[in-house]
Amino acid sequence: MTIKKVDAQADEQPVRVSVSEAARLFGVNPRTVRRAIQKNVLRYIVVHNRYKILFSSLVAWSQQHPAILHKRDKQGIGQWVDQWKIRNTLYSPRAPKIE
Fold this sequence. Notes:
Largest sheet: 3 strands, antiparallel
Number of helices: 6
Oligomer: single chain
Low-confidence stretches: none
Distance between the termini: 48 Å
Radius of gyration: 18 Å
Shape: elongated
Strand order of the largest sheet: 1-3-2
């Protein structure tokens, strides 16, 4: 019996979002996203005359600009982070703190 090494990244498909989805996720105007595309800051492909932006490039872009980082945390996807935290340590992937 042979064991085959599986490369996790080889099977993963890149996550791509539209301009409107990117704007909604990051709490910015769609024009802001389009300006970043024009400046070649974001990686994208065109499918049926629509931009599909690579999500990892959106995250990197938001982390480089403090204003966008703030909007992401206040108006975008970051506003729900506190609600996603697991409060029951029994089911938490983190080990409980020992004092």
